[in-house]
Amino acid sequence: MTVKQISVFLENTAGRLAEVTKILSDAGINLRAITIADTADFGILRLIVNDTGKALDVFERNGFTAKATDVIGVEVEDSPGGLHKVMQIFEEHKVNIEYLYATLERNKDRAVVIFKVDDIEHGLRIIKDHSLITVAGF
User: Fold this and answer.
1) Distance from CA of residue 35 to its chain's centroid?
2) Closest Cα partner for 74 from 23, 122, 13, 2?
């Protein structure tokens, strides 16, 4: 089971991220996870929202370059070593993780971590084989 992530390409200038959050807020779109990586000239904002289609439309109408990508949301024990257990399974089965980040979600005593892996089908198969719990959306 995958989750849709939106990647937004931003110029690395003051106020640009505030503009994005205002656009989402004005459209009634709720953030469920967010991370940003930057270089000297631009940033890549990655988000998971409650309405991907609407967010993509809002970004397009406001002149932002954005695209949707499949990622995997995995419930992880919210205790010392919880993430390591998942990482160890991925390592043993050669699941290549391109990046990961935590969400704003929490299910009881479990956190939700978003994984971008190079082979989604392989990652999902390993998750299923080890009875890890994925999330379908937020």
Assistant:
1) 8
2) 2
Closest alpha carbon to 37 in 128, 105, 109, 101:
101
- Write the CATH number of the domain with boundaries 71-135: 3.30.70.260
CB 73 within 8 A of CB 30: no
Burial of 6 (0-12, 13-18, 19+ CB in 10 A): buried
Inform me whether the pLDDT recorded for 100 exceeds 90.
Answer: yes
What does the mean pLDDT of the chain come to?
Answer: 92
Using the structure block, give the residue that is written with the tokens 């109408």: 61
In this structure, the strands spanning 65-77 and 134-135 are antiparallel
- Tokens 């043993």 locate to 92
The correct CATH number of 3-70 out of 3.30.2130.10, 1.10.3810.10, 3.40.720.10, 3.90.550.10 is: 3.30.2130.10
